[in-house]
Amino acid sequence: MDFNVPAHKQKEVLDSALMGTTDISVDGDHHNVIICAQKKSASTFLLNFLGESLSYEVFGIGFDRGGGHLYYPRALAAKFQDNPTVSRCHEPAHWYTVDILDALNFDVIVLTRNLLDAIVSLCDHYSNYDCEYGVSEEMISSKSFGEFKNSNRQKKISIIIDTCARDYINFYMSWRDKVVKDRLNVSYVRYKEVSEKPEKVLKNLNTKKAKKSEPKKIISEGRANYNKGVKGRGNDISEKTYKRYRK
Length: 247
Hints:
The chain is of the alpha/beta class and 247 residues long. The protein has one domain (7-246): Rossmann fold. It has helices at 10-19, 43-54, 72-78, 95-103, 115-127, 142-149, 153-175, 178-183, 191-196, 198-204, 208-212, 239-246, and strands spanning 32-37, 57-58, 85-89, 107-112, 185-190. Helix 3 (72-78) links the parallel strand 2 (57-58) and strand 3 (85-89). The radius of gyration is 19 Å and the shape is globular. The model is unreliable at 219-226 (pLDDT under 50).
């Protein structure tokens, strides 16, 4: 297991992870922010923008130090870093996700995007894959991947709607639950705000440092995952596909 915590805390953290408890004593003032985002909502851009502007460590919180899922030992490890951290994941508000973030006192930014725009963006993202590796874990089965790759664009969009729209809707509704809002310090951010005025996101964080920080410009240096994307991509959906989606 990837803990990356001080030696004197490792046994306590290991016992906690194996027993499924969140009762860990953490010394000092450790501020940790996590972006819980829908896929293709400019979460990587926002992650690096906040890291640069706040001078926070960008901390991979997934099992493989990635950012797709929330992995409890890595969430614990964030509490023991020398610097405050900002992380991201794509988790809906499962009860265990809320328990972990509540117990470890994370500030949460929930990032969402217009569903139709996200569907088209995700469709184009998957279209660039050469095989089902990585795609099958993200809601498209390996059996349907061949069909997806060999279809025209509107058919591809229909497949994405069938396999992904439910998860986008469930994500949104789970984070809007009253119990979640009562337990966690949650800020709700739209893709439009991130793409147009990310400095507003910075100023709305409930910390003194955020309110005093100056926004920094993120330079992609040719890295596509720093791209904020394009608004209005849902307009690429045909009328026939849209009517089917509405049903």
